[in-house]
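worker-3 :: picked Apoptosis regulator BAX-like isoform X1
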Amino acid sequence: MLFPAIKSCFLPHSDTDERIGAALIKEVIEEELKEIPSEDVPPLTPLTVQVKTEQERKMVTQLGIMIRIIGDKVRDDKEFQDAIDGVAQGSGSKWDRFKEVADKVFEHGITWERIAVLFYVAGKLAVRMVEAHLPQSVREILMWTVDFFKNNLLGWIREHGGWINSFSELAAVSMHSVSSMNSHTGGLFIIFIAGLVLGSFITWRLTR
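worker-3 :: tokens ->
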């Protein structure tokens, strides 16, 4: 009963889901940029709100790991990769091209998995911008993704019980992807499960 244990550590603050979502987008983008030389990457703090509790931080970390696992499926999708390249390299408004990619992700409706895919795509877009010698656009990608999240996804997330209710679906999707993982991603999944178990145990101890 891991998920109910974690759920008990969150108070029903109306802005918690917004705060976690913005922090999660930043987390995913920063993780994707870790392979880029630091001097080429603009600082992303304090462009988004910060999490307020250790429980929120753990949640962002665990969700971030699952998003990276789920994103492996998008990595092999040529249509998505071409769309990502188009944002970085095409002419015209980058915002319009970003919106086209986001709309494509949700063309069949909103799910937890598709929200994860959008955040992963934002991370890959940030990498493409740096590779295209447009590092200033990394901050734009972050803010565009946060704005899209707030305007188009936050209401759905709240209606579906908040981020805590994403764990079961995202974990199931992640488990389904394990068989095709490389050793590095598999290691991340093990870390995620270990963190989930540890977080649940700590929460259980604190609430007794």
